[in-house]
Amino acid sequence: MSDMYSITGMSCAACSARVERVVKKLPGVSSCAVSLLTNSMSVDGTASPSDIIAAVEKAGYGASLNTPEQTSSPSHAQEEEALADRETPALRKRLIASLVFLAALMYFSMGHMLNLPLPSFFANNHVAQGLAQLLLAAIIMVINQKFFVSGFSTLIHLAPNMDTLVAMGASASFAWSVYVLFMMTTGKFAPHDFYFESAGMILTLITVGKMLEAKSKGRTTDALKSLMKLAPKTATVIRNNKEVTVPIEQVQRGNVFVVRPGENIPVDGVIIEGTSAVNEAALTGESIPVDKAPGDSVSAATVNQSGFIKCEAVRVGNDTTLSQIIKMVSDAAATKAPVAKIADKVCGVFVPAVICIAVLVVAGWLVAGKSFGDALSYGIAVLVISCPCALGLATPVAVMVGNGMGAKNGILFKTSAALEETGKINIAALDKTGTITSGEPKVTDIMTAGDFLEDDLMKYAYSLEAKSEHPLARAVVDFAKEKGIKPQEVHDFHAMPGNGLAATLGDGDMLIGGSVKFIGENYAVGERFTNEAAKLAENGKTPLMFVKGDELLGIIAVADVMKSDSKEAVKELQELGIRVVMLTGDNERTAKAIGGEVGVDDVIAGVLPDGKESVIRKLQEKGRVAMVGDGINDAPALTRADIGIAIGAGTDIAVDAADVVLMKNSLRDVAAAVRLSRATLRNIRQNLFWAFVYNVIGIPLAAGLWGLKLDPMFGAAAMSLSSFCVVTNALRLNLYDIFGGKK
After folding, report:
1. β-bridge pairing 579-583 and 427-431
2. Can you tell me whether residue 524 is helix, strand or coil?
3. Are 223 and 329 contacting, i.e. CB atoms less than 8 angstroms apart?
4. Chain-centroid distance, C-alpha 409
5. Distances (CA, A) of 401 to 559, 616, 638
6. Other CB atoms closer than 10 Å to residue 408's CB: what's the count?
7. Of 368, 405, 425, 466, whose CB neighbour count within 10 A is largest?
8. Inter-axis angle of helices 222-230 and 321-334, to 10 degrees?
9. Per-residue 3-state assignment (H helix, E strand, C coil) for 555-619
10. Which residues, including other chains, have CB under 8 Å from residue 265's CB and lie 6 or more apart?
11. Which residues lie below 8 Å from residue 189, measured CB to CB, with a gap of 6+?
12. Nearest-angstrom CA–CA distance, 328 and 304
């Protein structure tokens, strides 16, 4: 059982690590993942919600259980509202107010250095200047009281966070300055010993960083918000033979709705009347409209570009393709990528370690003979330059942007782990039917005998095959219909299992169609046609022979044709250093013909659906394997593989066995998914590297170990920029071309 919770009070990765740690300790909790980016927590297990909420509150944070209505059937408007950026406007107000008072504070503290005139009362009255600075700094501290409430609250709960570092730094600066102010009355200190401006500047600069970070974090969910905005708000349904416009929530399964040119399709359905070209770019990323006719399916949020269509609702509410995509992207953002575990472990001890380092730095400089004011300055600089946020945000922001990029292009990663692991594969096992090939047999070759014309052969073949439901028969019938050929009436139709079909024409002649072996054993075929049939079979095609009376009409070859982009897709995978293996139940001769045509590295033929799992197991002995299939009969293999990729899922995207779902029926999206995964992982590593390097360099620098004294104000500025830079770097993923310039 999995429950989702909303968490309040978190300000950095140390917070999320603390919440995760206390919840995992509860009896009955099997797994817990806390997202700092979305302020949410997913908990699996049997622990009661009341115990979980109590544990979070005891740790110093707030928690509330999302009700079933919120988690399973929220409207897109509610979901969009939940993702709205409320943090940036609040921070902007705080920042503007802080800047106004900081300007006055800097005027009183540093104006004399710039020869700025002071009111006569303050000109040589250093105590008055100090009092003015005290009041202004106190106002800035009140404006930014959230840092102190959060920081000292978590400190009391023995779970200090980033706010604790800021609050301690600003408080130490303020307290020391107040002490100096009192001591000035005895003549022991001079005005330059004040740190009021540092207290105000630290809080203001951190607020700047927080606002930039919040604004950038908001952009990481842009893809998700864009998907939600696509959801139609109303639908035009037929009720009592009249068209009625109703809210989308009132559309029920089985309702008939109409869509005019230029309108969005409101829910998933099946066309029952009319034809159209539908732009499905919102779901698949494919900009070319798809022709639709009665019997074809349509999906919510796609656009009817031409023609009036009448449809029956099949999936409504949260069952629509769009809703499931939104849920999948949201769920993926709530999970943790394996690479994030390193940062989580560090963040769990980071803030307490920094506080200890700051104390040791102050003590060390006092022992070295520095004044308490100078020693304190070093300690404050250590507190405010340290940034656990950069470490904590390194992974989730990149994951969110990567998932959004995938969703925009019809590539859905079910978890953050899937997004990370997809790029690590070095073997791709491709199912043949429906993956490399279209999955629907087509007529590929026609050879006529004697004086018969091609249209004659197709007319008789159509007349016979129209009575059959066999897939090969459908291929012949569809081809004849495309050519505009009319069938003849036949009677006494009967099937000969394993051999072919037979019927009687109006003139009394027998019409027979079947395998080369059956026709060759019963009729004079001739060496030429026998050889041609053998060549067709060697090329992976199925030759069908047709006879009228005792005369051979000719051969029609049928094959499951290769998709137009399969060859290019295999080449792209190979260029990525991935060995491509084709799995098929075909005989070895046919399999090798198709494998050679598409250019795969290896062909494994004669594999039944239930045998694919064992093949994947053997391939895993040679490397990390991705199984690419249709997500239905390949379920065991998809589950066994390191990464299961369901291709061409279309409207049926809920393929439980797959880790990655590709909305388009294109094999090239497999290579695109690998590229996106590798780019995201590369971005995460960059973020983690710079976050670690920043702290490794920044803390010793602030401590004065390299002979430099870093003003606490510059430390605060550096801290603010570090998180902003990490988030901005993650947003660069939006510029990455996952199709390698070959879209």
Report:
1. parallel
2. coil
3. yes
4. 10
5. 42, 31, 26
6. 18
7. 425
8. 160
9. EEEEEEEECCCHHHHHHHHHHCCCEEEEECCCCHHHHHHHHHHHCCCEEECCCCHHHHHHHHHHH
10. 232, 259, 278, 298, 299, 300, 301, 302, 303, 304, 311
11. 180, 183
12. 25
- Asked if residue 479 lies in contact with residue 466, where contact means CB atoms within 8 angstroms, the answer is no
Q: Which of 2-6, 76-80, 504-508, 611-615 has the lowest mean pLDDT?
A: 76-80
List the alpha helices (DSSP H) in 423-553: 454-465, 471-482, 516-522, 527-538
Phi, psi for residue 252 in degrees, rounded to 5 = -115, 160
CA distances to 457, 537, 544 from 519, in Å: 16, 15, 9
Separation CA 678–CA 572 (nearest Å): 14
Residue 634 CA to residue 613 CA, distance in Å, equals 8
The owner of tokens 């004399």 is 112
Tokens linked to 688: 């983690």
Q: What pLDDT is recorded for position 246?
A: 92
Kindly state the DSSP code that residue 250 receives in the 8-state scheme. Answer: G
- 3-state secondary structure at position 420: helix
Local structure of residue 337 (DSSP, 8 states): -
Task: Report d(CA 505, CA 464) in Å as an integer.
Answer: 9
Specify the pLDDT at position 69: 45
From the list 186, 187, 203, 206, the residue with the least C-alpha distance to 195 is 203
Supply the residues annotated as catalytic: 431
Which three-class secondary structure state does DSSP give residue 505?
A: strand
∠ CA 120-122-125, nearest 5°, is 120
Give the count of beta carbons closer than 10 Å to the beta carbon of residue 597: 14
In this predicted model, what pLDDT tens digit does every residue of 382-437 receive, in sequence order? Answer: 888 887 667 767 777 888 888 888 888 888 888 888 888 999 999 999 988 778 88
CA 116, 117, 122, 125 torsion: positive or negative?
A: positive
Residue 235, beta-bridge partner list: 246
Most confident of 81-90, 275-284, 460-469: 460-469
Q: What is the per-residue pLDDT for 653?
A: 44
What's the CA dihedral at 625, 629, 634, 635 to 10 degrees? 70
- Helix (H) / strand (E) containing 513: strand 510-514
Nearest to 728 by CA among 202, 218, 335: 218
* 284, 664 contact by CB (below 8 A): yes
25: which 2 tokens? 């300790």
Which runs of consecutive H residues, i.e. helices, occur in 221-320? 222-230, 281-284
**Residue 162 Cα to chain centre, angstroms:** 28
Q: Which of 457, 434, 440 is closest to 630 using CA atoms?
A: 434
Amino acid at 29: V
Per-residue pLDDT band for 741 (boundaries 50, 70, 90) equals low
In SS3 terms, 203-229 reads as HHHHHHHHHHHHHHHHHHCHHHHHHHH
Token duo for residue 279: 């732009």
Dist. CA 564–CA 257, nearest whole Å: 35
Per-state percent for the chain, helix, strand, coil, to nearest 5: 55, 20, 25
Q: Which residues, at least 6 apart from 429, have a Cβ–Cβ distance to it below 8 Å?
A: 581, 582, 583, 612, 615, 616, 619, 625, 626, 627, 628, 637, 641
